[in-house]
What we know:
- By secondary structure, this protein is an alpha/beta fold.
- It contains 15 helices and 9 strands.
- A hairpin with a 3-residue loop joins strand 1 (about 50-55) and strand 2 (about 60).
Amino acid sequence: xxxxxxxxxxxxxxxxxxxxxxxxxxxxxxxxxxxxxxxxxxxxxxxxxxxxxxxxxxxxxxxxxxxxxxxxxxxxxxxxxxxxxxxxxxxxxxxxxxxxxxxxxxxxxxxxxxxxxxxxxxxxxxxxxxxxxxxxxxxxxxxxxxxxxxxxxxxxxxxxxxxxxxxxxxxxxxxxxxxxxxxxxxxxxxxxxxxxxxxxxxxxxxxxxxxxxxxxxxxxxxxxxxxxxxxxxxxxxxxxxxxxxxxxxxxxxxxxxxxxxxxxxxxxxxxxxxxxxxxxxxxxxxxxxxxxxxxxxxxxxxxxxxxxxxxxxxxxxxxxxxxxxxxxxxxxxxxxxxxxxxxxxxxxxxxxxxxxxxxxxxxxxxxxxxxxxxxxxxxxxxxxxxxxxxxxxxxxxxxxxxxxxxxxxxxxxxxxxxxxxxxxxx
Length: 426
């Protein structure tokens, strides 16, 4: 009897082990199949998610040791995810450029980014320095502050340049997009982040994510998760928080003996006609009425109200957003896509005025604290030899190679004038 029990026990262990092996081999086979044969997604967000990963403190960061193509350009990152050579022991003046995708060099070669060009310009003046590009795609000033505290200080820079604006005024994040401000997000447990990042490296998982995203609600696709269908009024970083972040970065730098330069990043956002105060008030009240009718499930009446409002403001993202909500509820997938796409695109008009407000805050803090300012906006406005952004039709805030050259020229002059008058020494 004892031998019979042992035999059954041994057989059960063998079957369990064999099941695990078969399952592993099957998943490995699927992984290889999807790696080689699943077509690369044309979705812009999925393309970005290929080169960034979640971080328990920074929310996300660029993946280390990248050697890939992104936005039609070769992209390589070092061991900490920066688009720079591996950082060695410090033996010269170290300049680190904090910023978002315009600093990273979206759509341009690494050698054409303004941090790289600045390094070359300083060498022409016999300045023995190294210029490190710490631009992180999608970063707000809040994330820049976290990056300074947790990574950049350890690299012991002599100078940091600071350029944030376009993501501060955005309402969407690549991860954890839930209508909350960046500063309200609590750190994720490291174990969760590690498992999530491992899963996102799998071709099978990415294909599954890609396919399931096509069936999620259209609102979630464009606006992430939120607690209700209300239009998100929260920018990732408020005006007050933006000013606080700039001052906090300057405070930390000063405490650690680091010089600071603020860089106003030029944007070329279009503007719509200014509504009369009476039109703004009517639009606000009518949208609130439409939102109420949506809650009451009277979608026809809500749609009639919203359609009328387009005669007053044909570029209102809020109106198109609620038209998208109605189409999504009624399972009109194609129409919902169209409405939400328009809502996202027309938010750019609101961002135009807001970006100027945030840039003015950077100028204000610069003046109050006597921080050198690299302001290339005038250079961009006076440039007459072509377009200075990556895509003349779709891109209003990522400088092309010529744009980076203009910024680098202005920034080099600021650095030389403020820090290197005494034979190349700070």
